[in-house]
Design brief:
Order of helices and strands: HHHHEEHH
Number of helices: 6
Structural class: mainly alpha
Number of strands: 2
Helix content: 55-70%
Shape: globular
Radius of gyration: 19 Å
Distance between the termini: 36 Å
Strand order of the largest sheet: 1-2
């Protein structure tokens, strides 16, 4: 991870680049902290989404992850082989399968979540003043507004 400071050019293009770089660094660091074992980043992401209940079918997971259904099927097969997820027939639609965590998947998912939370809490306590933490919260409120912005692209 680079220790280069993020430039403070407030133009829309420079700000969007700085946000993407900082968020990317942050997410990579969170992945490093969690003990994902032999999981690929895609498998770890799917395990987290299933654990959060964000999606219960392969097709819904594929949409959330931005991958083709065939790729999601491969990811789920690997997670199933590792004993972390299980698939069962949907009681209301026999063509679909419901994806859920196994007990081992729940343990790993909770351990990963706890490791991330512990690391982040420690970093916040040791490296940031109360004033800096308040400023982070203010910045996060702005990022939350970005996340709520429409995703339609405009062409000029």
């Amino acid at each position: 991870m680079s220790d280069e400071p993020i430039p403070l050019d407030a133009s829309p293009a420079a700000t969007s680049l700085a946000v993407r770089v900082a968020v990317g660094r942050f997410l990579r660091r969170l992945r490093e902290v969690a003990a994902e074992g032999d999981l690929t980043p895609s498998q770890a992401s799917v395990l987290t989404r299933v654990g959060k209940g964000e999606a219960t079918t392969a097709s819904a997971l594929a949409v959330l992850e931005g991958v083709r259904p065939q790729s999601m099927a491969n990811t789920l097969t690997a997670l199933e082989a590792a004993g972390l997820v299980q698939r069962a027939p949907d009681p209301t639609d026999g063509r679909r399968q419901i994806v859920g965590l196994t007990d081992a998947g729940s343990v790993q998912n909770e351990g990963n979540r706890a490791a991330r939370q512990e690391w982040l809490t420690e970093v916040m306590a040791e490296r940031y003043t109360e004033d800096e933490r308040r400023r982070l919260l203010e910045a996060l409120a702005l990022l939350d507004r970005v996340a709520e912005a429409p995703t339609e692209r405009t062409h000029r």
